[in-house]
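question for whoever is on the cluster today: can someone run the full assembly for these? two chains, 625 residues total. i dont have access anymore since they changed the login thing
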Amino acid sequence: MSIDTPAKVIPAARKITTKPRVSDQIFRGIVTAFSFSALLILSLIAIFLLLKGFTTFKEQGLGFITHFEWSVTQDEAGKEVAVFGLQAMLIGTVVISFVALVIAVPLSVLTALFLTFYAPERVKKVLVTIVDLMAAFPSILYGLWGFFVLMPMAEYWAKLIQKWLGWIYIFDVPQGVYSRSPFIAGIVLSVMIIPIITSVSREVFSQTPLDRIQAAYALGATKWGMIRAVVLPFGAGGVVGGSMLGLGRAFGETVAVYSVLNIVFRTNFQILFTQGGNVASMIIQKWGEAGKTEISALMAAGLVLFILTLIVNFFANFVVTRAVKSGR
Amino acid sequence: MDKSSQITQNGTLMSENQNTTPSSLSDVAAKRAEAKVAGTSPLGTGLEARGVHAWFDKHHALEDVSLDFSAGTVTALIGPSGCGKSTFIRTLNRMHEFIPRTSMAGQVLLDGKDIYEPGIDVTKIRLQIGMVFQKPNPFPSMTIGENVLSGIKLAQLKVENNEDLLEECLTRAGLWTEVKDRLSAHAGGLSGGQQQRLCIARALAVKPKVLLMDEPCSALDPGSTLRIEETISQLSKSMTIVIVTHNMQQAARVSDYTAFFLSDGGPGQMIEVGPTNEIFSRPRDERTENYVTGRFG
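^ ran it for u. tokens below:
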């Protein structure tokens, strides 16, 4: 090989551009603007809450999340003394939502399995419509139904649970009052989030690869065996994601919970007992008679709820995308 | 009934000559002849399709197919696309009915018993008639070992020693040496050919009498194809195999008998069946000859 071989010339990468037509540019602008408007509205709400609640955050500090008192009093000099702590409400929100999930997830998964693998075509159509309708149902109606219809029955169930499982702390009732408990609020919430979890689960179950389903059947699996071996592992991520979406709704639910829950600023894990909390319902409850200081505190509470819901939804997205990548 | 009598005649003929020509075909024929004499064989009496028709909704896809798959033989189903051979193989273990709005007529007999009989436990049938699909379909959420034993678990069978069974099935499928050190790895990490052999091992674990293979090599490279063909020859000693293939060389290499399917625009029909070497060297039907010599299809 000779020494004076010309060096290989590697060209720089060309810049590739396209100039869209004006009509395309305009449409692009419209689409972009609208899609960012959602983000804009969301951030504006967050900023609004932050500004309004700023004084509360400054005065209460971390105590706003860790304390469980909520009072505005006047000292001898007539000066306003405000103590705001969300702890009881935050824990209450989680407790109620957890009760709701425990009831709703199994029901929803079984419903989704029925709709996907067992229901005849016509039954399926009708049921899917009804379940979707459940999601669009106004929450005040759930609240009224919960108060007038569900509560008397649920009190009876609560008494039964207390009688047999009362030795477990969370099922014990210190004083014999069973109405307006986190348990009842949880049931109402569960009915509200069932449609969300059901439709997400149904969607993922129906995407189960046919070749895997056939593989299981060809190995002599029963339908239930096939579901356990193929459908549930495949759909698990989707079920978790759907449950998280349901949880997001449960966190933020206001009116329905307000109608059936006795909101008390005391941290309570005894779900059958008549006291509990829920940030959103608390805001509604305090709103009407709140002074200027308290309004700021309620705004701040709103922001905390907002962030909590955002975290749950973010986590839900994360779980769903991960499940899509790995489990398949 | 020309074809089945032809097979029998041929089988008898071959079994008489078995000492002089110890080819695999004569082994098979000998085995069948023995079974006929004894009345029973550990392999059963095989699988038999009688007058099978199949429909997709109103579309008549398969018309009046009768085929006898004697125990311990390998039968290849060949024919151009859309001739109904895949549909036919799926009627043999009742997978056809999983597609909505399908129907079938006729009988499929396993050891002389109709698998479509009302009241029969179809999951038990599918345990005895295993299937390997066109596209490798291991369960990705399970490990390699779990995949092999998944049929045992699904059918709630009791096995004395899982480890032994695992090794046996993977060895028979020709995969053991490649995966023995990573049985707890996920099956998704295997190559396509390995996945397909894993699917064969999985099908073997429940000890089927019959193994149906629906174009098992069509998604694989030549090397993997060769491995699977070796596997098929090994397996044919202990079970009845029916294989759908688009590859005529493959049919010639692995099968004892070959059945040619064709659709003339109407429902698919079985044109001709016979010992593989006869179908490829001197077919009786002109259409078969055109196909195997590559003049169409």
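summary bc i know u wont read the tokens: Chain A has a mean pLDDT of 87. The two ends of chain A are 53 Å apart (CA to CA).
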